[in-house]
Amino acid sequence: MDSSDFFASLPAFGIFAEVADTRHYRLAPDDWHVIITDVRGSTQAIEQGRYKQVNMVGAACINAVLNVTEKGTVPYVFGGDGATLLIPPGCLGRCTEALLGVRHLAATKFDLSLRIGLVAVAEIHKHGRRRVMVGKFQLSPGNTMATFTGGGIELAENWVKSGTDCLLDGEPPNKNPDLDGLSCRWEPLASQSGTMLSLLVQVAGDDDTQKARNYRDLIDEIGKLTGDIETTGKPVCDANMKFRWPPRGLTNEIDITVGTRNRTLHALRLYLSSLIQFFLDRFDLNAGGYRGRLYRVELRDNTDYRRFDDTLRVLIDCSPAEADAIDAMLAERTQRGELKYGLHRSDSALMTCLVFDLDKGEHVHFVDGSNGGFTVAAKKMKAKNRSS
Hints:
- The protein is an alpha+beta fold.
- The chain contains 11 helices and 18 strands.
- About 35% of the residues lie in helices and about 25% in strands.
- Strands 8, 9, 13, 17 and 18 form a 5-stranded mixed beta sheet that branches. Strands 3-4-2-5 form a 4-stranded antiparallel beta sheet, sandwiched between helices. A 4-stranded antiparallel beta sheet has the order 14-15-10-16.
């Protein structure tokens, strides 16, 4: 039986507090593959102030795959310094070729080393109770994000990062990957409450049903401390969406999207298009598929600030006192053996955009805390596990 429409036909859910509810998940087909990508040495890059480049490479992994596959068929989760993708068998070759191209670009344009791991879903399902369960969370009509549970993604990530058997090797393709739609033109998003909190949590539980209840309780508890994460604490709002010209991130966009084009002409084209976007945004004008005010509204709705891939990942704009309260609550629950967590505080967030079809409102936006965001939070969570 052809499994290629597995994700496209999956029903979407719209309440993030239900993100771990097993009713929203289906078992991934055995003939699919999990791809895990991450930037090696991301800590050093962060210390050098290059986390925006790290984010761009992580988003490029998703963009390159989406541009060689049918719309809506590939589930993915952005991780800050990389991505997790689930690939149907019919397009595996195209996807791996595109990712090898991204790895080459990361090395030549940004001096970053991209690790690419490939794990068969069938191999994961052979290991005890670990499964790759897939959900689909709807940000807005036409824009959905994948969610994963069942422990299979976590197992795949451990395999990829602990050895070489799962690593994808090979020479870069003769052509550069298609990264049309990838951009980073918005200024860093300043916190409106004092702290951008990048938070990662993994709850304990004897089975998926128990874990779902524990995640729901945890999300409710965070809501009591900061407000409902469905409606408050969003890291993107009209007050912190700033567009200046030329955008400070435009050089990164030029470097990673130039491909085989003449760099000077490509740069001029992007400077001109960003100048037009600047005026349309500043004066709330419409041109082509871009509608200044509507785009801002859609952008806020389509921001991927809540994710789930066997780990709850949330970026919250909160006060320092609220961040302290969340930290204390999670520390207490950790002492009771209920969960493990990591968090990182910064004063702003970074946004990287994938724009598909403005006329249809199809665009998604990845946000991450500045100065390391989810990458630093993950390292802190691992450090706490080693010391406990």
